[in-house]
Amino acid sequence: MKVNFMVMCEYATQQANGSPILCGIFRGITTDTLPAKLTPFWLALEIEAEPHEAGEHHFSLRFVDEDGNIVYEDHLIGQFKRRPDLSPSYLYMAETIEIRKEIEKRGTYRFDMVWNNEVLGQLRLEVS
User: Fold this and answer.
1) CATH code where residue 101 lies
2) DSSP bridge pairs for 53
3) Are strands 2-14 and 20-26 parallel, antiparallel or unpaired?
4) What is the tens place of the pLDDT at every residue in 61-106?
5) pTM of the predicted model, to two decimals?
């Protein structure tokens, strides 16, 4: 199991053929004052599962500050189908993220995609 990509953007959707559409990709935000409330945004990601990992899996998406404190957490469920040619199966997710807790300080925050207590992928958000 692995995360192929994680992207923050202003909007995300998917074409009928499964191709992702990502608009307004960003890696950081600038704020004049602190504490600051983040405007809701989209997080899009693709998870790849090996043939032996077919089935339902539970994931946690965590937003973590520089001190290791979890600022936001969401639980996701993914269903991976067994493919007849024994190749990996892919799951694309795009979800609106609304972090209700105010950001108290500037720095590097990160999203962790966690499965079975293992961080599969990370994405950093720079707050300046």
Assistant:
1) 2.60.40.1930
2) none
3) antiparallel
4) 999 999 999 999 999 999 999 988 889 999 999 999 999 999 999 9
5) 0.90
